[in-house]
Amino acid sequence: MNNIPENFVWGVSTSSYQIEGSVETDGRGKTIWDTFCENPKNIIDQSSGAVACDHYQRYPEDILLIKDLGAKAYRFSTAWSRVQPEGFGKVNKAGIDFYKRLVDSLLENNIEPWLCLNHWDLPQGLENLGGWRSRDTAFRFAEYAEIIGKNLGDLVPNFITHNEPNVVALLGHGWGWHAPGMQSADAVMAVTHHLNLAHGLAVSRLRNTVPEAKLGTVITMQPVIDWENDPDGSARLDALSNRAFTDPALLGTYPDLISEEISDFVQEDDLRTIHQPLDFFGLNHYTTVRARSSQDTALGVKIIQPPLEIPQTVKGWEINPEMLYQQLLELKNRYGNLPIYITENGCAAPDKLDSAGRVSDPDRVAYFRDYLLAASRAIKGGVNLKGYFAWSLMDNFEWADGYTQRFGIVYVDFPTQKRIPKDSFYFLKKIFQNKT
User: Fold this and answer.
1) Separation CA 433–CA 277 (nearest Å)
2) Residues of the chain above pLDDT 90, percent
3) Annotated active-site positions, please?
4) Domains within the chain, CATH numbers bracketed
């Protein structure tokens, strides 16, 4: 990893609903994930984020873990429903105060805050009014961004509008695997455009509110491979998942393949609002995907599992670090060489506590090593890669998988909430502290 520059940002990422818990504490409002978890069919182990990692109460302990790791940055998300319980109207001071305490503690420990405004947990109050299918939600999001900017902008140097809005659109409104559990192509198009519009409106508000802050967005990009077996399905999935958010934000256009489908939701000057200069682009990358056309899905395409002989994680995600290298080069060539941060990268592994109270996770260590080597090659190839955030700091509520999948570098014993650093924690610690 000799190509990593000295000023490279090493960090870890989490999200509010996955770790905070305390869902009925201090005036927090209900979210679409609270509602989604009420149906036992939606979550594999019938669990929820009601307690999760109890981070709302235990954040000082978690910040000390970040400090011990040697991470200089922490990417977290604010829960909109803690700030505005319904997603609009009165500001909840207790919610703002919690995030001020969190940020103050990060700064006291020399950890740079990276604040994400939206990591999927839309307030249920807005969902009752149409959620992201409603154009009005984009304007409510801009108001929320301004509230956060006014209250935390003097402390937070980096703001992210959305985390993986493409997942919200596709998994939440197309395939129905995530909240709010819809299966509608029209909903996907409406949600895609309104999330993009919300990004642009929020960037404008934040530029005015916190002019010194660095602003960006985070998109998950999983390269589509195996094109030769279904070029039409591959092209459609690539447009819906990898282009529908990057192209508008970075080029000011929608991919040709979906431009007609989405046109009903696009109003004059929308794309100009969406396409604004950004200070950085956040890339979440885990795997590659294989697509097949399917009339059994609302979107006309489905993702298929890789062949059994292909290396893959316990979750069934293909391990292919070469495609991270290719993805970074493609971002450079397609969108210009803007600063890029890998804002999520990691894998699920079959973690167990041994008799000595240790968690050995060699699969995760190998994954991090190989993907970091691929990132280092990309830097050598001219990619303007500025930082890397591991996913995730600790095991957490893993959406529709509940607590059946562990992505953390810190093991969480959920009945006791005890935190136990895994071998991967110590592997990254050496890298983050430049001791390897």
Assistant:
1) 33
2) 98
3) 164, 344
4) 9-432 (3.20.20.80)
